[in-house]
C-alpha cells in the first residue's frame, strides 16, 4: 500500500470538494472493499476522504418511499423494522451477503461502490482491461467459473458481487447522489454499467459525486418474496448465481413480478421479459418454467461456467416456487 | 486412591492464557530494536533473475536494507550441495526461479507498512522460461524414486478376473493448510554465530537442527522459542525458505528482524497437499469377498525435492484381500514443495479406496457397511502381523447406530425431506500409531510441585494438558501442582508434533520420567529415613504423592521428604522410546465416519446435516480435547469434501483464489452437529498409557463418507473433489 493522506471533512460540501478537486482522491466509508484494493495495489489513491461522520445514517419513510441514508450499515439495514416489514426481500439479500463482521462495517453506498470481483483484476501481475486498459482480459481465456453469462463483452466478463444490489434493482430503487454540479436521482438499474469497451467504469457516478441515499418506492412485495443464493459454501461466499424474486399475488394471479439475478453480470441483472411473462399468470410450476426459460435465453457461458445457464434456470424456478409458496 | 486423571475432560492448562490474549505467539514477541520485513516474490514461474533494482526501495522512508541473491550473506551448507541434488530450494543462492511466488528479495524497514510499501518498489527483471504446472499435461515427466517402490501381494491386477469389478479415476485438488496464524519468524543474531529465533513451528528441535546444518554453528548457539502455535496442520513441520531469508537478512543487518507472510504467500511458501490422480480398481466374488485391489496414484512435487506420502498405504492393509498391488509416481512441476497436510497421504488415498468400496457395494447390491465387515482384516495382511489393538468392527456398530444407518435406503435418490434429497454415507480411516523417542526432565520442588520439561510443540491439541494428566496419574500429585513446559529448544529433546504421535511419544517419556523420579525419591528415603531403611526399593508403594512401605505402615509425602532432607528439588531426566513390541505387532489407529446429507435437487447444493465419527485410538487421555480434535479434523474433512481447492491458472502458474474469500475453508454454517465417540480401550502394547494417535484419523476417510452420501442421495457419483454444486448438477446419474 502506498502512503496516502487522510481527511475527514465536516460536511457534505467539503467532502465533495475534497474528492472533486484531487485527481486520485476517493471517498472511504466502511472500507471493506477499498482497503483490499489498496493492499493489493489495485488502487493507489493519495488521499482518502472519510465520510463516516456525515449525517447520512437515517432510515425513514418519506411520502411512502423508504429513504435509506448511504452510510447505514448493512447489518443495521437488514435488521431494521421498516425493512423487515415493508421490504423483506432487501433484508434477506443483505443477510446473504458477506459475513456478519463485514456487514457490521459495510455501508449501503459502499456496497454499491464495490468493484466487480475477478482474480485478474485483483492480481496486479495479471492482464486485466478494467485495471489496466488494453492489457487484455485474463478471465476470458483463463479461470472463469465465477464469471458472467449476461451482458459481458470481449473486454471484461467480471460480475458484480453484491447481494444487496440485486434486491434494490428488483425493487426499482432510486439512487440519490450529490456532486459538484448539484444533486440528481439515478434509477438503480442505471447506476451500474455493463463493461462494453470501458470496463474500468463500474457505474455512472461522475468525479466527486457521492451517493447520499437510496429510496425504495412503496410496493406490495411484503409476502411472496425470496432471495436464493447458490454458493460453494454455506456462508461467506460469493454467489454462483443468486435470484431475487418479488411477487404480488392477488386471487391466485400474479399481479406483478420482479426478478433480478446476481453473480451473472457486470451489474445486478433485472429480467424484464421474464417479469412480463409472469404478469397476469397463475403462480404455477409451468409458468415459472416458462419464465425461467425466457430469463436465461440469452445466456452465454465460458469454459468453466458452462454450468451457470442451467443453474440459473433451475434457481429462478426454485426461487419463484419458494416465493409463491410462502 | 485419588480420582484417575487420564480420561477426564480436564480444562486446558493454557486455556485462560489463550482466551485472554496472554498467550504469546511468535509474532507477539518484540525484541528491542525489532525491524520488519516483507518479501518480494516472483511473478514468473520458471526462469532466471535478470536484475534486481532496489534503488527506489532503498530511498523509501524507513528502509534499512534489501537483501537478495546479489548481497545475501553466505550460507555454508549451500556450498556442500552437489549439483542436481534434490535437497531443497536454496534461497538467495543464485538467480534461478523454480516456481511462481518464490521469494527473490526481502525488504527490511522500521515499520511493517514501510517494508510492505518498499517491497512494491523493488524492480526485478526476469528471463522467463517455459513453465509446467499442469500435472495432466506433464504426465510424461512422471517418475518414481527409491521411496516409492511398486507393491505386489499375490497377483497384480487380479481384480480384473473377479465376478464383480469396479475401476475408476479419483482426483483431489491441491489443498492449502491455511491455519489462522500466518507463517513467519523473528530472527536475531546476538553475536556473529549466536542466533535466537521466535518461530512458528511444530518442532523446535528440528528447527535448531536445520539451522545448525545450514549455518554450521553449534547447537547450543541456536535458541528457538515457540511456546504457542496458531495451528499448523503440517505446514510448520519444516523450515521453509521464508525463514532462511529472514535469518539471512537479520545476519546482514545485525538486528532482530520479523517476517510475517501474507495470506496469498501461504499458498506458495509453506507447502500444500499435492493434487493427485488415482486409478482405483477393485474386484470381489459375487458374495462380496474382495479378490483384488489395484491402486495407482500420481501426485505432484517441486523441481528440487521429491515429496512422498502414504497415498497408496491404506489399500495395502485395510481389507483382507489376497491380491493387492500399488504404484505411486511423482510429477515434478514448477511449484513449491508439498508437505504433509493433516491425514497426509491416507486422506488422499482413502478418498479413492473408500469411494470405490461404496461403488463396489452398489454393484454387489450389498450394504457398504456389510461389505467392509466381511472383508475386515483380522490381522495385518501387509506385514502379516497381529494388530496391537483393533476395534474397528465395534466402531462400525456404534457409528451405524448413532447415525441411524437403518434409515438409509440402498436405492439412490429414494428419500426426500423438505424438498431436499437425503443420503447416508460412511467410510473408514486409518493411520499408523507411532511412538518415537523423547526425553523429559522431571523436577520435584520442595513445595511438592512438579515441573516437567520437554522440547515438544503444541499446535493446539492441548499437549501440556494431556501431559499433566499423565503425570498426575503416575505420581498422584494433584494436576494443579504439575506444570508441563514445552516449546523451547533448551529443553530435552522431543520430536516434531506430527503424525499423531505426541501423546504416544512424549506422554510415554513423561510417564517414564515420573516413574524414575519416584524411584529416585525412594532411594533418598531408603538412605535417609529410618522407617524406610530396610525396605527393598522394588517394594516401595507410590500412592497419592507419597511413599509407602510394603506393609503400608510407614509413609511420607514427597513434599515432606524434600523438606526433611533440606533438598530444594529432586530432578531426573529420562529418555523413552518404543521397544521390540513394534516389531511384533502392527500398530494403527482407526476411524469410521458416517454422514447424512441433504442435496438440493435443482441447485446441486450439498448440506451435511449430521456427522458421527468414531475413533479407535486406544486410551483417551483427555475426553474434551480429544473430542475437539476429532471435530477439528472433521471440519477439515468437510472442507476437503465440499469446498477446498486451490486453483491455478496454468498460463501463468499462479493461483487465482489465494485468499480466504475465494479459497473456501468450511465455516460454521457448513458444520452440522458432529457426534464423536471413542472406543476408549487401551492398546496393550504401544505405550504405557495405551494411547494411539488421533489427529490424522479425524480427517482420513471423511471426504469419501460425504461422496458416498451424495451418491445415496442423488444417484450421482462425484469422483473429483471438492463436491461443488456445479459438479453435482453436471454429473449424470
Q: Care to give the gist of this entry?
A:
Helix content of chain A is 30%, strand content 22%.
Walkthrough of the structure:
The complex is a heterodimer of chains A (326) and B (733). By secondary structure, chain A is an alpha+beta fold. Chain A has helices at residues 12-20, 34-39, 74-79, 81-86, 88-96, 100-105, 108-113, 119-122, 164-170, 188-191, 272-278, 285-296, 308-324, and strands at 5-7, 25-28, 47-50, 59-62, 65-69, 174-179, 182-187, 210-216, 224-231, 239-250, 253-262, 269-270. In chain A, the strands form three sheets. A five-stranded antiparallel β-sheet of chain A has the order 4-5-8-6-7. Chain A has a four-stranded antiparallel β-sheet with strand order 9-10-11-12, with helices on both faces. In chain A, strands 1-3-2 form a three-stranded parallel β-sheet, with helices on one face. Chain A starts with a strand and ends with a helix. With 733 residues, chain B is α+β, with helices and mostly antiparallel strands. Chain B has three domains: 15-22 and 436-577, Aldehyde oxidase/xanthine dehydrogenase, molybdopterin binding domain (Aldehyde Oxidoreductase, domain 4, 2-Layer Sandwich); 31-130 and 181-230 and 236-267, Alpha-Beta Complex (Aldehyde Oxidoreductase, domain 3); 276-434 and 583-730, Aldehyde Oxidoreductase, domain 4. Chain B is built from 17 helices and 31 strands. Chain B has a seven-stranded mixed β-sheet with strand order 3-5-1-12-9-10-11. Chain B has a five-stranded mixed β-sheet with strand order 7-15-14-13-8, with helices on one face. Chain B has a five-stranded mixed β-sheet with strand order 18-19-27-28-31, sandwiched between helices. In chain B, β21 (450-453), α11 and β22 form a beta-alpha-beta unit. In chain B, α8 (346-364) packs parallel to α16 (702-714) and α15 packs across α16 (702-714). The relative contact order of chain B is 0.13. The chains are: A alpha+beta (326), B alpha+beta (733). Chains A and B meet through β9 and α13 of A and α4 and α17 of B.
Amino acid at each position: 500500500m502506498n502512503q496516502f493522506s487522510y481527511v475527514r471533512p465536516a460536511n457534505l460540501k467539503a467532502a465533495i470538494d475534497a474528492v472533486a478537486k484531487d485527481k486520485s482522491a476517493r471517498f472511504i466509508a466502511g472500507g471493506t472493499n477499498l482497503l483490499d484494493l489498496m493492499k493489493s495495489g489495485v488502487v493507489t489513491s493519495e488521499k482518502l476522504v472519510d465520510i463516516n461522520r456525515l449525517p447520512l445514517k437515517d432510515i425513514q419513510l418519506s411520502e411512502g418511499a423508504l429513504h435509506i441514508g448511504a452510510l447505514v450499515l448493512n447489518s443495521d439495514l437488514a435488521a431494521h423494522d421498516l425493512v423487515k416489514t415493508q421490504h423483506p426481500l432487501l433484508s434477506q439479500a443483505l443477510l446473504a451477503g458477506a459475513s456478519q463482521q463485514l456487514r457490521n462495517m459495510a455501508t449501503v453506498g459502499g456496497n454499491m461502490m464495490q468493484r466487480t470481483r475477478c482474480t485478474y483484476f485483483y492480481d496486479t501481475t495479471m492482464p486485466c482491461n478494467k485495471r489496466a486498459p488494453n492489457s487484455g482480459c485474463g478471465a476470458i481465456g483463463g479461470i472463469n467459473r465465477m464469471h458472467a453469462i449476461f451482458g459481458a463483452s470481449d473486454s471484461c466478463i467480471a460480475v458484480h458481487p453484491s447481494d444487496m444490489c440485486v434486491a434494490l434493482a428488483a425493487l426499482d430503487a432510486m439512487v440519490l447522489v450529490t456532486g459538484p454540479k448539484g444533486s440528481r436521482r439515478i434509477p438503480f438499474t442505471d447506476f451500474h454499467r455493463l463493461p462494453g469497451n470501458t470496463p474500468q467504469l463500474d457505474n455512472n457516478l461522475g468525479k466527486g459525486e457521492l451517493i447520499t441515499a437510496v429510496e425504495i418506492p412503496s410496493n406490495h412485495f411484503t409476502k411472496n418474496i425470496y432471495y436464493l443464493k447458490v454458493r460453494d459454501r454455506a456462508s461467506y461466499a460469493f454467489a454462483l448465481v443468486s435470484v431475487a424474486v418479488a411477487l404480488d399475488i392477488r386471487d391466485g394471479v400474479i399481479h406483478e413480478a420482479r426478478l433480478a439475478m446476481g453473480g451473472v453480470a457486470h451489474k445486478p441483472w433485472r429480467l424484464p421479459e421474464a417479469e412480463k411473462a409472469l404478469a397476469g399468470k397463475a403462480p404455477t410450476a409451468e409458468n415459472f418454467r416458462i419464465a425461467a426459460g425466457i430469463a436465461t435465453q440469452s445466456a452465454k457461458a465460458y469454459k468453466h461456467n458452462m454450468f451457470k445457464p442451467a443453474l440459473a434456470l433451475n434457481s429462478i424456478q426454485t426461487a419463484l416456487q419458494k416465493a409463491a409458496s410462502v | 486412591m485419588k480420582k484417575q486423571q487420564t480420561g477426564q475432560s480436564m480444562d486446558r492448562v493454557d486455556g485462560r492464557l489463550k482466551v485472554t490474549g496472554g498467550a504469546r505467539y511468535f509474532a507477539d514477541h518484540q525484541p528491542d530494536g525489532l525491524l520488519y520485513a516483507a518479501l518480494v516474490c516472483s511473478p514468473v514461474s520458471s526462469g532466471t533473475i535478470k536484475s534486481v533494482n532496489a534503488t527506489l526501495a532503498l530511498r523509501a522512508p524507513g528502509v534499512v536494507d534489501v537483501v537478495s541473491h546479489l548481497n545475501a550473506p553466505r550460507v555454508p551448507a549451500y556450498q556442500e550441495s552437489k549439483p542436481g541434488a534434490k535437497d531443497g530450494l536454496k534461497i538467495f543462492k543464485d538467480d534461478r526461479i523454480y516456481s511462481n511466488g518464490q521469494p527473490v528479495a526481502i525488504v527490511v524497514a522500521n515499520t511493517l507498512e514501510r517494508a510492505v510499501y518498499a517491497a512494491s518498489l523493488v524492480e526485478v527483471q526476469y528471463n522467463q522460461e517455459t513453465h509446467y504446472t499442469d500435472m495432466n499435461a506433464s504426465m510424461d515427466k512422471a517418475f518414481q524414486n527409491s521411496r516409492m517402490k511398486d507393491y505386489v501381494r499375490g497377483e497384480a491386477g487380479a481384480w480384473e478376473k473377479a465376478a464383480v469389478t469396479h475401476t475408476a479415476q479419483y482426483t483431489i485438488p491441491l489443498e492449502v493448510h491455511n491455519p489462522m496464524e500466518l507463517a513467519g519468524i523473528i530472527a536475531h543474531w546476538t553475536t556473529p554465530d549466536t542466533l535466537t529465533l521466535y518461530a512458528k513451528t511444530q518442532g523446535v528441535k528440528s528447527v535448531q537442527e536445520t539451522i545448525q546444518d545450514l549455518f554450521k554453528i553449534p547447537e547450543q548457539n541456536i535458541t528457538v522459542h515457540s511456546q504457542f502455535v496458531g495451528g499448523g496442520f503440517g505446514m510448520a513441520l519444516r523450515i521453509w525458505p521464508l525463514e532462511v531469508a529472514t535469518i539471512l537478512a537479520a545476519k546482514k543487518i545485525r538486528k532482530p528482524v520479523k517476517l510475517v507472510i501474507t495470506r496469498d504467500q501461504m499458498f506458495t511458501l509453506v507447502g500444500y497437499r499435492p493434487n493427485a490422480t488415482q486409478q482405483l480398481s477393485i474386484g470381489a466374488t459375487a458374495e462380496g469377498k474382495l479378490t483384488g485391489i489395484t491402486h495407482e496414484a500420481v501426485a505432484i512435487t517441486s523441481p528440487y525435492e521429491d515429496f512422498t506420502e502414504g497415498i497408496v498405504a491404506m489399500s495395502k492393509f485395510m481389507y483382507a484381500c489376497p491380491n493387492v498391488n500399488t504404484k505411486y509416481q511423482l510429477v515434478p512441476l514448477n511449484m513449491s514443495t508439498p508437505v504433509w497436510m493433516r491425514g497426509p497421504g491416507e486422506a488422499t488415498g482413502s478418498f479413492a479406496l473408500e469411494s470405490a468400496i461404496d461403488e463396489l457395494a452398489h454393484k454387489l447390491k450389498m450394504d457398504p457397511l456389510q461389505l467392509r465387515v466381511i472383508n475386515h482384516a483380522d490381522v495385518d495382511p501387509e506385514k502379516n502381523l497381529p494388530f496391537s489393538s483393533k476395534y474397528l468392527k465395534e466402531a462400525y456398530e456404534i457409528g451405524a447406530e448413532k447415525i441411524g444407518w437403518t434409515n438409509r435406503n440402498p436405492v439412490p435418490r429414494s428419500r426426500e425431506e423438505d424438498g431436499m434429497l437425503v443420503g447416508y454415507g460412511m467410510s473408514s480411516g486409518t493411520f499408523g500409531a507411532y511412538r518415537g523417542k523423547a526425553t523429559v526432565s522431571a523436577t520435584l520442588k520442595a513445595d511438592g510441585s512438579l515441573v516437567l520439561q520437554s522440547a515438544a510443540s503444541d499446535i493446539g491439541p492441548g499437549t501440556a494438558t494431556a501431559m499433566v494428566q499423565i503425570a498426575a496419574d503416575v505420581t498422584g500429585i494433584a494436576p494443579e501442582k504439575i506444570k508441563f513446559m514445552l516449546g523451547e529448544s533448551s529443553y530435552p529433546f522431543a520430536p516434531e508434533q506430527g503424525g499423531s504421535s505426541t501423546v504416544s511419544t512424549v506422554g510415554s517419556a513423561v510417564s517414564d520420567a515420573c516413574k524414575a523420579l519416584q524411584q529416585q525419591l525412594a532411594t533418598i528415603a531408603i538412605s535417609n529415613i529410618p522407617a524406610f531403611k530396610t525396605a527393598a526399593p522394588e517394594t516401595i508403594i507410590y500412592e497419592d504423592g507419597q511413599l509407602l512401605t510394603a506393609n503400608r505402615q510407614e509413609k511420607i509425602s514427597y513434599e515432606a521428604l524434600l523438606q526433611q532432607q533440606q533438598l530444594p528439588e529432586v530432578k531426573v531426566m529420562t529418555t523413552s522410546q518404543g521397544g521390540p513390541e513394534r516389531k511384533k505387532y502392527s500398530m494403527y489407529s482407526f476411524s469410521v465416519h458416517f454422514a447424512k446429507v441433504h442435496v438440493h435437487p435443482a441447485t446441486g447444493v450439498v448440506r451435511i446435516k449430521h456427522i458421527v465419527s468414531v475413533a479407535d485410538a486406544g486410551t483417551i487421555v483427555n475426553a474434551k480435547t480429544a473430542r475437539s480434535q476429532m471435530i477439528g479434523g472433521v471440519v477439515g474433512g468437510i472442507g476437503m469434501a465440499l469446498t477446498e481447492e486451490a486453483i491455478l491458472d496454468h498460463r501463468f502458474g499462479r493461483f487465482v483464489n489465494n485468499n480466504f474469500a475465494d479459497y473456501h475453508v468450511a465455516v460454521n454454517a457448513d458444520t452440522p452437529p458432529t457426534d464423536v465417540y471413542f472406543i476408549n480401550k487401551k492398546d496393550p502394547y504401544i505405550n504405557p498409557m495405551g494411547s494411539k494417535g488421533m489427529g490424522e484419523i479425524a480427517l482420513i476417510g471423511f471426504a469419501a463418507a460425504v461422496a458416498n452420501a451424495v451418491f445415496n442421495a442423488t444417484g450421482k457419483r462425484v469422483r473429483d473433489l471438492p463436491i461443488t454444486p456445479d459438479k453435482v448438477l453436471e454429473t449424470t446419474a
